[in-house]
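Check my protein:
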Amino acid sequence: MKIYQTHKAPNPRRVRMFLAEKNIEMNYQEVDIAAGDNLTPEMKVKNPTTKLPFLELDDGTCIGETVAICRYFEELEPESPLMGRSALEKAQVEMWQRRVEFHLLQPVSMCFVHSTGFFKDRMKPIAEWGSASGENAIAYFEALNEHLSKSEYLVGDYFSIADITLLCTIDFARVVKIRVDEKYTHILDWYERVSSRESAKA
């Protein structure tokens, strides 16, 4: 099996970190999205959305979407779970995963796409929307900092896929000059804990 990815993008890194935490080795095939290699007819057969990453199994079955890929490996290798250990914890992980995706990852992504014009050959960037998206991402740090003042990780003392998503988002946000302000000490403490994990190098 192998995973198609663009190494510098946040979503492939989320999968790499997830697999690193589980000590799962993987073959990766780099795809040049700037050149549109993900848009070829051959690639669209494998992955109709054209988004990366996606997993291709040995029998040719393909699984797209970051969390779906992680779910597949969570079920294959349930030891050291990253998506929750109890019914409550699973729900809390899902809750924080979605909150980080909706309130931080998506706005940062929209800021990148619309502010840089990286994909202007295949979409119309709207600079105002890029700017507003960046502001929305920055605004979320307030609530996030408050939550982390009472919690070691996003879900209590349990490191999960939600923390992986948050780390990858914060690191990617630097591309559009979004950084965690020094006043958000609880986020910065959390960041130091998570970025020091071996999987953060993935």
In short: The two ends are 18 Å apart (CA to CA). The CA atoms of residues 52 and 85 lie 28 Å apart. The chain has seven helices and four strands. Residues 87-116 form the longest helix (30 residues).
